[in-house]
Design goal:
The protein is mostly helical. The chain has helices spanning about 5-30, 45-55, 65-70, 70-80, 85-95, 100-110, 115-130. It has two domains: about 5-80, no CATH class; about 85-130, no CATH class. Helices cover about 65% and strands about 0% of the residues.
Length: about 130
């Protein structure tokens, strides 16, 4: 099916409506268990449709776009979750036993030709302020 076909438009509309119903039902079901003020994050995905898209020939003979499968939205959400807290945790750990070693990296990088030296120094400067 071509992405501009009537079948495609109908399928996307039905998938979108079904997903909205599922999301609303899940949020209602778990509302009493979620203490956060933000709504429950729900992602309706289709691995089957996403795989078809990945294996499709160049003529766009797919049923849904990547966005319509929900996979890119889920990936973006998953990538955002651990990064800030993991980085802070790592930096705070480094404040302890490895603080001197990290400062030594900054001194070492000034005397040598170090690839991406400015980025290294930036990271070291950020580390100094995260745990305070």
């Amino acid at each position: 099916m071509q992405l501009c076909s009537r079948y495609y438009r109908q399928k996307v509309r039905l998938v979108t409506l079904r997903n909205a119903d599922v999301i609303a039902a899940l949020r209602e079901e778990f509302a009493d268990r979620i203490t956060d003020t933000k709504p429950l994050n729900v992602f309706c995905i289709s691995n089957t449709e996403y795989r078809k898209l990945k294996d499709a020939p160049e003529d766009n003979s797919v049923d849904l776009t990547a966005e319509a499968t929900g996979i890119p939205a889920l990936r973006a959400y998953a990538w955002r979750l651990p990064a800030p807290s993991l980085w802070k945790s790592l930096v705070c750990y480094l404040e302890g036993p490895f603080a001197g070693w990290i400062e030594g990296l900054a001194i070492w990088s000034h005397g040598k030709k170090v690839k991406n030296r400015n980025q290294l120094l930036k990271k070291i400067a950020t580390r100094r302020h995260v745990c305070y």
